[in-house]
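Pipeline run #58 for the internal structure catalog. This entry was flagged by the ingest filter as a single-chain record with no existing model, so it goes straight to prediction. Upstream metadata was stripped on purpose; only the residue string is passed forward. Reviewer on rotation: M.T. Logging verbosity set to normal.
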Amino acid sequence: MSTDDVLAEVGPRLRRLRKDREVTLAALSETTGISVSTLSRLESGLRKPSLELLLPIAQAHQVPLDELVGAPPVGDPRVRSAPLERHGRTFWPLTRQPGGLQAFKVLVPRREEEPEPRTHEGYEWLYVLAGRLRVVLGDHDVVMSAGEAAEFDTRVPHWFGSTGEGPAEFLSLFGPQGERMHVRARPRKARGPGQRDGVPGRFTGWTK
């Protein structure tokens, strides 16, 4: 792919990223200090992208610069994997080896959803990076904020998605054979009668 071809794809990529995060041009302009007209021209391809413009945009969206320019993958294991779209959500695989613990970064867009809990073998650990994430687990229906974590047995009916207030980003570590990640933190609220750490289907830890 030529340099011109790479640059031609930057504008649509900028627009898609901004819309996925439900950010207006005015809000992005306020965050980056770049005028709305310049941002609009960048997205439409009428303004040639430059490092001076792309750096503050990458910082505002909290993504690597190479995600904006579509840098080709290399052999470095730290390179981000291509995102996957499933059920209206975006997943970034963070592990490469098959089997065992699998890690994902997940972006949930803002939208009204009816929870549809499901079950399967395994164990999952969640950590919210940004926004607010609704989590339904068994009889629990809670909202997790940035900096909070939970782990649970996936044989218990579970679902997580948007609160309807805005997008949410979180990390998911999933062990298909029941491998566990332990969160060592005191709970934010006192547990009810009979509730204790380590019980499958319970929130076994919080951190803030």
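catalog note: The first strand starts at residue 84 and ends at 86.
catalog note: Residues 3-20 form the longest helix (18 residues).
status: ready for reviewer M.T.
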